[in-house]
Design goal:
- By secondary structure, the protein is mainly alpha-helical.
- It has 2 domains: 214 residues, Rossmann fold, CATH 3.40.50; 81 residues, Tyrosyl-Transfer RNA Synthetase, CATH 1.10.240.10.
- Helix 4 packs parallel to helix 14 and helix 10 packs antiparallel against helix 13.
- Helix content is 55%, strand content 6%.
- Strand 4, helix 9 and strand 5 form a beta-alpha-beta unit.
- The longest helix is centred in the last third of the chain and has 30 residues.
- The protein binds tryptophan.
Length: 337
């Protein structure tokens, strides 16, 4: 048996909105880097999904290029993983059509992300939003994925993908699709990277992020502005959330000795947040600089990006066409000629 056969399959989609920040990098991307050699990985840019928000053609195109360049810059290896653009594999929209016939209005309307969108953007509650989980399920099961590395916010969608997969299997009396399971490294949750605004995690939309493409001067400015407090007044005092967050960031990017030094400073009430932030900024810059340089190189290399996209599309379509052939056969969509 070839090595490829025994590897489990992993699928993950990335929306082409916003740039990658440290949260994405230490959360998702680094686990992608580890997975790409041990699993049969499909990583794709979910450009069709992003149409629910009606981007302009120019913005959509720029977003796709940027995300592709950023993932490659982080070290996703197009020879190891299949990295592709969703719309290059039209088979997925065909499977989505079939799955839609057995996706019920009630369950789609009850989806948390749909309810949230319907509430926050009442003048754009389109059918694509309603059936977003169906398209996502098609993305996953078209490659017969075993694992999907997603964050907490996607767990319900993944559960729906399992429901749709099982429903199809049951309906056509054939175990075609494995149940896609959430993937966590070493059984642990993904690292959560806090934002710089005192509370919560780093997010694309919350404006509290540090981006991989950012230049060092901007990173220094952002880190120096991070929320802290007036400083500890008692030895070994419990850290308030904004300060705890800075330490968490430091644990992620800095050397253990550096963290220990500032922990001691804090515990003995001698900490100078300015010094800590300066160090933190430099350690962040050390992580982002090589990635940033590669992003700048890659984003203008249309030839290379095109080559990667074509290679990914070919590999992904091969797998998608194979599954769709089985799906059509099971459904009874057989050619009369
Ligand atoms: N919904 C995912 C997100 O917003 C993106 C996505 C689309 C996805 N299709 C997928 C993720 C399939 C995993 C698998 O992040």
């Amino acid at each position: 048996m070839s090595e490829k056969k025994i590897k489990k399959t992993v699928v993950s989609g990335i929306r082409p909105t916003g740039n990658l920040h440290l949260g994405n990098y230490f959360g998702a991307v680094r686990s992608f880097l580890k997975m790409q050699h041990d699993f049969n990985c499909y990583f794709f840019i979910a450009d069709i999904h992003s149409l629910t928000t009606h981007p302009t053609p120019a913005n959509l195109q720029a977003g796709v290029r940027q995300v592709l360049a950023e993932y490659l810059a982080c070290g996703i290896d197009p020879e190891a993983a299949t990295i592709f653009i969703q719309s290059d594999v039209p088979e997925v929209t065909e499977l989505y059509t079939y799955l839609n016939m057995n996706a019920y209005l009630g369950e789609l309307e009850r989806t948390t992300s749909f309810k949230e969108k319907a509430r926050t953007q009442p003048d754009n509650v389109n059918a694509g939003l309603l059936t977003y989980p169906v398209l996502m399920a098609a993305d996953i099961i078209i490659h017969k994925a075993n694992y999907v590395p997603v964050g907490k916010d996607q767990e319900q969608h993944l559960e729906m993908a399992r429901t749709f997969a099982n429903r199809f299997n049951r309906m056509y009396h054939h175990k075609l699709f494995p149940a896609p399971k959430p993937f966590t490294f070493d059984g642990k949750d993904m690292i959560k990277v806090p934002g710089l605004d005192g509370s919560g995690k780093m997010g694309k939309s919350s404006g509290n992020g540090i981006y991989l493409y950012e230049d060092p001067a901007d990173i220094r400015k952002k880190v120096m502005r991070a929320v802290t407090d007036a400083g500890p007044t008692e030895m070994n005092q419990v850290k308030p959330e904004p300060v705890e967050n800075l330490f968490t960031l430091m644990k992620i990017v800095s050397a253990p000795e550096t963290v220990e030094y500032f922990e001691n400073q804090y515990n003995s009430c001698q900490i100078r947040y300015g010094d800590m932030k300066k160090q933190l900024a430099e350690d962040i810059i050390a992580v982002t600089t090589p990635i940033r340089e590669r992003i700048l190189e890659l984003v203008n290399d249309s030839e290379y990006l095109g080559k990667v996209a074509r290679m990914g599309a070919e590999k992904a379509r091969e797998s998608a066409v194979r599954t769709l052939t089985e799906v059509r056969e099971l459904i009874g969509l057989r050619k009369l000629y």
